[in-house]
TrEMBL record:
<dbReference type="GO" id="GO:0005886">
    <property type="term" value="C:plasma membrane"/>
</dbReference>
<feature type="transmembrane region" description="Helical">
    <location>
        <begin position="178"/>
        <end position="203"/>
    </location>
</feature>
<protein>
    <submittedName>
        <fullName>Raffinose/stachyose/melibiose transport system permease protein</fullName>
    </submittedName>
</protein>
<feature type="domain" description="ABC transmembrane type-1">
    <location>
        <begin position="67"/>
        <end position="257"/>
    </location>
</feature>
<dbReference type="GO" id="GO:0055085">
    <property type="term" value="P:transmembrane transport"/>
</dbReference>
<keyword id="KW-0813">Transport</keyword>
<dbReference type="InterPro" id="IPR035906">
    <property type="entry name" value="MetI-like_sf"/>
</dbReference>
<comment type="similarity">
    <text>Belongs to the binding-protein-dependent transport system permease family.</text>
</comment>
<feature type="transmembrane region" description="Helical">
    <location>
        <begin position="71"/>
        <end position="92"/>
    </location>
</feature>
<feature type="transmembrane region" description="Helical">
    <location>
        <begin position="236"/>
        <end position="257"/>
    </location>
</feature>
<keyword id="KW-1133">Transmembrane helix</keyword>
<dbReference type="InterPro" id="IPR000515">
    <property type="entry name" value="MetI-like"/>
</dbReference>
<feature type="transmembrane region" description="Helical">
    <location>
        <begin position="138"/>
        <end position="157"/>
    </location>
</feature>
<feature type="transmembrane region" description="Helical">
    <location>
        <begin position="7"/>
        <end position="28"/>
    </location>
</feature>
<keyword id="KW-1003">Cell membrane</keyword>
<dbReference type="Pfam" id="PF00528">
    <property type="entry name" value="BPD_transp_1"/>
</dbReference>
<keyword id="KW-0812">Transmembrane</keyword>
Amino acid sequence: MRKKYLIPLEVLGIFLALIWLAPFYLMIVNSLKTKREIFEDTLKPPSSATFDNYVQAFNELDFLRTFGNSLLITVVSVALIIVFSAMAAYALSRAKSRFSTIIFFVFVAAMLIPFQSVMIPLVTIFGKFEMLNRAGLIFMYIGFGASLSIFLYHGALNSIPRSLDEAATIDGANKFQVFWHIILPLLKPITVTVGILNTIWIWNDYLLPSLVINQEGKETIPLKMFFFFGEYTKQWHLALAGLTLAIIPVIIAYFFAQREIIKGVSDGAIK
């Protein structure tokens, strides 16, 4: 009886999986075609696969430099967000006072402020200090990413007993040692969650880099892809090859880190 109900669910699951995979099929298949083949039939596999599209897209995107820019900005931003947010959340969770509660709710309220409302003033202020560059972009990401990260860390820290802090203090550890050697390792599950959320956001962000980075050769992958698509709007074989190249690093990273990612998300889920 149970198997009878499982069959429709399996069919539905397969159908939804095919719908989800369809855009990837179209992207990869058409990136291997010539321009003429794409306009003849977008669903048909290529008669003879060509990788010339990838070579041209790789060169036009200046892919290695662009990938390096995205990697640098993402890694540094996420690392600083994790460290500063964890330290701030630890201080707010352990210092139980009206002042710390107000500060925490200020961080929470900051998540409700739309970016568009502070976009122009922020860029104007950073422009006056000549920080419209990668360093300024990283600084902005720390500010925008801290609120949600502190909120997540604060919730996780409330489940860690204060007795651990007190025992370490009795053994002679100072506040920094307690946090770095005892508390932070216990926050690994939620740290993975925070890292994933911020990595996805920063790696795929287009709007903020487009406002801040105005130097040639410093573009991130989404920003470079915008210019690339604008240049090759009618040449879909090159545009799709460039798009495929842009998502390959994410797929490779997930493939090697999937075990840690799944474990971290499941352990760090808000229960």
